[in-house]
Specification:
202 residues; alpha+beta; nine-stranded mixed sheet; 5 helices; 28% helix
């Protein structure tokens, strides 16, 4: 399996059908899904989630959902999302950033490390002009990660969810970072080792 991106501690790669059990374990954990959605069934991950991810990669090979592995141990930690805001846009310019990690990986800086890596690759190699991320307003942990990754608060907005989660009445928050803003940031070029698909065997 080829590596999409490496950092000091992480290796990001595309998902395959063999990742079903790992993804289901992540998506069925109530603690992980606290600010996201209801826990998912194995069938939903197999029949809906993974096929959608594979289709996104086919359309945009260098964007999508990427399995996050701890380099030292090979342990599956979760995933990162770096995808076009509009899936049908031919040349992605505005990209959505996201992540979902196992509870054992929380508080260890992995979310920030992977996010900074993807942002840097996006601005230096992929022609990205703006990175956007959203989370629940009450999700302070995720908001701190976005801030440490260089994104800035833009707005609070409200969504009419079919299955509202506790805290959703406080709304969602949007964070963003433009290429110009990133180019002036002191963290530019200080963290990561971006690699093109095919450069590194997994």
């Amino acid at each position: 399996m080829t590596t999409h991106l490496e950092t000091d501690r992480l290796r990001l790669r595309r998902f395959t059908a063999a990742d079903l059990d790992d993804v289901h374990a992540l998506h069925s954990d109530p603690a992980v899904m606290r600010y996201l959605d209801r826990p998912a069934t194995r069938e939903h991950v197999r029949d809906t989630t993974l096929p959608q991810w594979f289709a996104l990669h086919e359309r945009h090979p260098r964007f999508g959902y990427f399995a996050a592995l701890e380099k030292q141990t090979g342990t599956f930690l979760g995933w990162f999302l770096f995808r076009p805001q509009l899936v049908n846009q031919p040349t992605p310019g505005e990209i959505e950033l996201g992540y979902r990690l196992h509870k054992a990986a929380w508080g260890r800086g992995f979310a920030t490390e992977g996010s900074i890596a993807l942002v840097e690759m996006g601005f230096t190699e992929l022609g990205v002009q703006r990175v956007v991320a959203t989370t629940m307003a009450v999700n302070r942990g995720s908001r701190r990660v976005l801030e440490k990754s260089g994104l800035r608060y833009v707005r609070t907005f409200h969504v009419d969810w079919p299955h509202p989660l506790d805290g959703s009445e406080h709304g969602e928050v949007e964070y963003a970072l433009t290429r110009e803003e990133w180019s002036r940031s002191p963290r530019r070029g200080t963290v990561l080792i971006p690699r093109r698909p095919g450069d590194q065997p997994g």
